[in-house]
Every structure is written in structure tokens, then in C-alpha cells.
Amino acid sequence: MRIYYRRYIEPMKEQLNMSIFLAKKILGLIFAGLLLLQGCTAMAKDDVLKLSTHTIGLACYNGVTNAKLKYGGQVERICFTWTGPEKLPKDVNKVPGILSGSFKTFASPMEMTWRARDGSELSHTVDLNKEIPDPRVSYEFPERVFAQKPFLGDPVVIVEFDDRTINIYFAATLLVRPLDPASREPDHADTYTLVYSRTL
Fold first, then answer.
1. Terminal-residue alpha carbon distance, the chain
2. pTM of the entire predicted model
3. What is the Cα–Cα distance from 69 to 98, expressed in whole angstroms?
């Protein structure tokens, strides 16, 4: 019996122990790899929504006239021949129909002048590099965003003149993975976030 044990059982035990040892090593390597990948993926997801370029859109409301924005070596004007209308619910989260330029984020300080409803001539300068040192589009489900092509077109920085208030928004249409796994087409997700506001 002892000879049988030494000849057959002991080698089987050694082989089993070696298999368990190798399995533990492999599982450890897989687990470490998953953690590394998870960290890289989280970093990539975080970076995907960062603005590197953008266009500019202007809007004016509530009695504003003669609004002008100097930015990135260009001058944009709005409400020079008409008065800004009252801001209505349909105007909330609205991207202006006319956009201009393609700018590096952020190309320069924004210099704004305009006339408020009461006729006051106002001016304001903001350096978004200082106000928003890490500019990102806000989206609740970053894991759904296509890393290779996150944006449909350039994100838009919207400068809104609203009587005596300046509001600045980030708007973007994101390409995201469809909720329906059978769909081969990406879904679109529209985002619109207030990033700066100042009343004079």
C-alpha cells in the first residue's frame, strides 16, 4: 500500500499542488491586469470630455443692444440692428443658429461690451483659462462616450448677454454607445452646462 501511495498518490498530490499554485499566479496576474486596465479606462473616460477646440455662439436677451465680443483675434457682434427679446422657456438650453470660428480652448480672454436694457454701457472681461483651468463637457454617463470620436462637431462656447448679466455655457453633442445592444449606430446626447455667470 505504501509503495502504491508513493508511486501514484504522492505524484498526483504534487501535480495538484503545482496546478493550484499556477492557477493562483495566473489569477493574480489577471486581477492585476484588470485593475491596470480599469485605471487606464477611467483616465481615458475622464479625458474624453475635455475641450481642446470649440466654436463660439452669441445670444442676447432682455433688452440688450450693441453687444460685441472680442476673442481669439476675432470680433463678433450681435443685436446691433435689433433689441434682444425677452428670454422665454424655449430659449433655455438653446444653441444659437449662427456659430463662428474654431478656437483652441481657450484662445484668449473674452472682452465683452454691450448696452443693457436701461441704456447703460457695460463691459466685462473674463479669462476662462483662470476661471475654468480644466474645461470639460459635463455628462452623467462618461463610460458610454466613444473615446475615439466623442463629439459630433466642435463643442460650442455660448456667450449670452442677458440685460446686465453675462452667462457662458458649454454645449456639445456627444456620440455615445447605444442602449440597445443590437443597434450599430451611435446615439447622440446633447449637453448644455452653465460654466460662468456675472451680473454687473
1. 98
2. 0.74
3. 14
Q: Are 145 and 61 in contact (CB under 8 A)?
A: no
Closest CA to 193 of 93, 114, 65: 93
Q: How many CA atoms lie within 13 A of 81 on its CB side?
A: 0
Condensed to tens digits (0 to 9), the pLDDT of residues 52-82 reads 999 999 999 999 999 999 999 999 999 999 9
Q: Is the distance from CB of 172 to CB of 158 less than 8 angstroms? A: no
**Long-range CB pairs of 105-110, under 8 A, 24+ apart, other chains included:** 105/51, 105/52, 105/53, 105/54, 105/135, 106/132, 106/135, 107/71, 107/72, 107/73, 108/71, 108/72, 108/73, 109/71, 110/69, 110/70, 110/71, 110/159, 110/168
Residue 119 is predicted with a pLDDT of: 96
The four Cα atoms 97, 151, 49, 100 give a dihedral, to 10 degrees, of -30
Burial (Cβ within 10 Å: 0-12, 13-18, ≥19) of residue 117: middle
